[in-house]
Design a protein that fits this description.
This protein has 342 residues and is α/β, with parallel strands linked by helices. The chain contains eleven helices and twelve strands. The chain has two domains: 115 residues, Aspartate Aminotransferase, domain 1; 218 residues, Type I PLP-dependent aspartate aminotransferase-like (Major domain) (Aspartate Aminotransferase, domain 2, 3-Layer(aba) Sandwich), CATH 3.40.640. The chain is globular. The relative contact order is 0.17.
């Protein structure tokens, strides 16, 4: 006898990147930032007062929302914070797509989208990327909703802001979610600049990548007051206190230190370009590359045997590709030397 619900029995969970239990690995499989958070984050932690941990955190993340709003050039009513962008996206699926059909998303993209689709009874329609793994903008129109990662993962290819705007304009009856986890490493522009023009646009971002806070689990959404209010409503029906006090303090300090993170981003982009030239692979707009090999599984296993972790999917069209996070220059030299040995 199974005690699982029918839905639980049918779910295929998202498979996160492998987390090695011991030391000595070059970890290039989960798109983490190789550089530490801003020194301002440590200072903010020291000043936050551990005694406050006995109290519940601010359920609305007011100080953090204010800091993000100042950076984004919007009001606090346009900001929603959650436990990583994964939670923000999951709440958005519930708020805007649950029970609907014909919600459009690419066939090759973030692996959590189809999981949430099944979890929240969303009729996703997967539109194929073209031969160059690019989203065909004209196909995204007149739908019940759209969710797109820009830059896309795992491909690292981005649409320009004009193309994103065309998609938002072509879907007036549905919410268009633009997942910008990697946008800080790109030159495509952020859809946050379009928030004031379109009521159906929600932009989701994270502190995990460009702000070196993957362990703090902080994500946020930028959108019109109606969409943000809907996220607050769903959040409060699920978990009133999603962000702990320390994570709020860390993220608020991080987003204010623009100079530090701009410098680290430029170093990552420079390193990415160096690796792309060494491997002759397509240019990426993210903090990783999507590298085509002769045998993706064999190369993955060779790297793994040498304690270099990358990401491989045994799926149609991408089985010979590896997604490789851009680490420090030293880490990428180890990776490249290991590739040359193969």
């Amino acid at each position: 006898m199974s005690y699982l619900s029918q839905k639980a029995q049918q779910l295929t969970p998202y498979e996160a990147g492998y987390q090695p239990p011991d030391q000595g690995w070059v970890k290039l499989n989960t798109n983490e930032n190789p550089y530490p958070p801003s020194p301002d984050v440590m200072k903010a932690l020291e000043e936050s007062g551990v005694a406050r941990l006995r109290l519940y955190p601010d359920s609305d993340s007011s100080a953090l929302r204010s800091a993000i709003a100042d950076c984004a050039g919007v009001g606090t009513e346009n900001i929603f914070c959650g436990n990583g962008s994964d939670e923000v996206l999951a709440l958005a699926f519930q708020a805007f797509f649950s029970g609907k059909n014909d919600v459009l998303t690419p066939d090759i993209s973030y692996g959590f989208y189809p999981v949430w689709g099944k979890m929240y009874d969303v009729g996703l329609r997967f539109l194929p990327l073209d031969e160059a793994f690019t989203i065909e903008v004209a196909a995204y129109r007149n739908s019940a909703g759209v969710v797109i990662a820009n830059p896309n993962a795992p491909t690292g290819i981005a649409l320009q802001i004009e193309e994103i705007e065309a998609i938002v304009r072509s879907n007036p009856q549905g919410v268009v979610i633009i997942d910008e986890a990697y946008v800080d490493f790109s030159s495509c522009g952020s859809a946050v600049d379009l928030i004031g023009k379109y009521e159906n646009l929600l932009v989701v971002r994270t502190f995990s990548k460009s702000h070196s806070l993957a362990g703090a689990r902080v994500g946020y959404a930028v959108g019109g007051a109606e969409l943000i209010g809907a996220l607050q409503k769903v959040k409060n029906a699920f978990n009133s206190y999603p962000l702990d006090m320390l994570s709020q303090v860390c993220a608020a300090a991080a987003i204010k230190d623009v100079a530090y993170y701009s410098d680290k981003r430029d170093i990552i982009v420079e390193t990415r370009k160096l690796v792309e030239s060494e491997l002759s692979c397509a240019p990426s707009q993210a903090n990783f590359i999507f590298w085509k090999t002769q045998d993706g599984k064999a190369m993955y296993e060779h790297l793994y045997a040498n304690k270099v972790l990358v990401r491989h999917w045994d799926k149609p069209r991408i089985s010979n590709y590896l997604r490789v996070t851009i680490g420090t220059r030293e880490e990428m030299e180890v990776f490249l030397q290991c590739v040359k040995k193969y």
